[in-house]
Amino acid sequence: MHSEILKPMVVLIAWTILMLVWLVVTRLPAMKAAGIDITKLTGGKGADADGILPASTQWKAHNYNHLMEQPTLFYAVCLIIAVSGTGNGMNAWIAWTYVGLRIVHSIWQATVNKVSIRFLLFALSTLCLVALTLHAGMAVFHG
Questions:
Q1: Which residue, 59, 103, 114, 124, has fewest beta-carbon neighbours within 10 Å?
Q2: Are 129 and 98 in contact, with CB atoms under 8 Å apart?
């Protein structure tokens, strides 16, 4: 099966891995500078470092977490669209728009992090997800 909508999915997965690398290469030195020895840590979660590590370091971690949240719905809806045979044309363009907005959102959150702009990017990407969901529903229930 060849469906154009699979391409933006792969790009967002690759971007998520890149954000993970960015997170690691900034967080580990920040932890060392803060006197945190990861070999002595037990349990905990990434958010425990809020207030200990610099905010700009944590922004990358927060964004990585965000890429584990809403995009999971994106992947699911894109697979539904691909399997239904409607993953080309408009649906592929909407998916590319979603991915572009999520990448810009990541860069913004990881660097500047002004919430009003970040929220706008999130809202616009959510509208793309809503459109894809409606198209998936039409394909599945009326196709």
A1: 114
A2: yes
CATH class of the structural domain 6-142: mainly alpha
Write out pLDDT tens, residues 9-68: 999 999 999 999 999 999 999 999 999 998 888 888 888 899 999 999 999 999 999 999
Cα distance between residue 87 and residue 96, in whole Å? 11
Q: Which two tokens stand for residue 127?
A: 């509208």
- 1 pLDDT more than 80: no
Residue in 9, 143, 4 with CA at minimum distance from that of residue 76:
9
What whole-number distance in Å separates Cα of residue 65 and Cα of residue 47? Answer: 10
Residue carrying the six token digits 């409606």: 134
Number of residues assigned to the chain: 143
What is the domain partition of the chain in residue ranges? 6-142
- Per residue in 118-137, pLDDT tens? 999 999 999 999 999 999 99
Bridge partners (DSSP) of residue 53 are 50
